[in-house]
Design goal:
This protein is mainly alpha-helical. The chain has 11 helices and 2 strands. It is 63% helix and 4% strand. Strands 1-2 form a two-stranded parallel ribbon. Strand 1, helix 1 and strand 2 form a beta-alpha-beta unit. It starts with a strand and ends in a 9-residue tail after the last helix.
Length: 217
């Protein structure tokens, strides 16, 4: 796999990517963070200490970033223009936020909920701003997390996949189903069409035509 990988700040992602790089140095994977996860920590801090203004200030910085992103999306700009305008409007908002975070890090004990939120965001900083270089990416991976929610809820009913191969197959099928949904295709119709046509393909280019965003059903 080569491309952008957007996740939360769970350290195991970085560990896995480091190991992957050792065995697949030709793959160029750019790790991208999730601003929504950082926002959630400041929101929790605001609930824990309703008298403190700092969590609300952090949330205000993040709100401005989302608003600027939303305004750009509504303009339906060409890709290059969009990226250029994003750098002009959104990047300065991140930079102002970073200045504020650096200052707060020296003022707030890291043991406090707010201190943990500040440190989490600063540790994730290079990943949080990495999405700015990709038109398709947004500031968070909420859509991806929402799409896997049925699987997360379902695993309480099937505690084990049976084997690593079973887990891989499950991941593969769920990816197909959720990607079909994202492209406004009925999953059952897509899978039926895919299973009928895929065995007849001889070239990779033929398989690519069966991807949810290319196929005609």
């Amino acid at each position: 796999f080569s491309g952008f990988l957007q996740t939360d700040g769970y350290q195991s992602y970085e560990t896995a990517l480091a190991k992957h790089k050792l065995t697949h140095p030709e793959d160029k994977i750019i790790h991208v963070g999730c601003l929504a996860h950082a926002r959630r920590k400041f929101f929790e801090a605001s609930k824990a200490n309703k008298k403190s203004k700092s969590p609300l200030q952090a949330l205000s910085f993040i709100k401005k970033i989302y608003q600027a992103e939303d305004n750009l999306r509504k303009q339906n700009l060409e890709n290059e223009t969009f990226l250029a305008k994003r750098k002009e409007t959104v990047l300065p908002l991140f930079e102002n936020f970073k200045i504020w975070l650096d200052k707060k890090q020296t003022q707030i004990p890291p043991s406090l909920i707010m201190g943990k939120a500040v440190n989490y965001t600063l540790n994730q900083w290079p990943f949080l701003i990495a999405y700015l270089d990709c038109v398709e990416l947004t500031a968070d991976n909420n859509k991806a997390e929402q799409s896997i929610k049925p699987f997360v809820m379902g695993r309480k009913n099937w505690l084990f996949s049976g084997s690593p191969a079973g887990a891989k197959s499950s991941c593969f099928l769920y990816s197909l189903i959720e990607t079909a949904k994202a492209n406004a295709i009925e999953p059952a119709d897509y899978l039926r069409c895919l299973f009928e046509q895929a065995p007849l393909c001889n070239e990779e280019s033929e398989l690519e035509q069966l991807l949810p965003w290319n196929i005609t059903i």
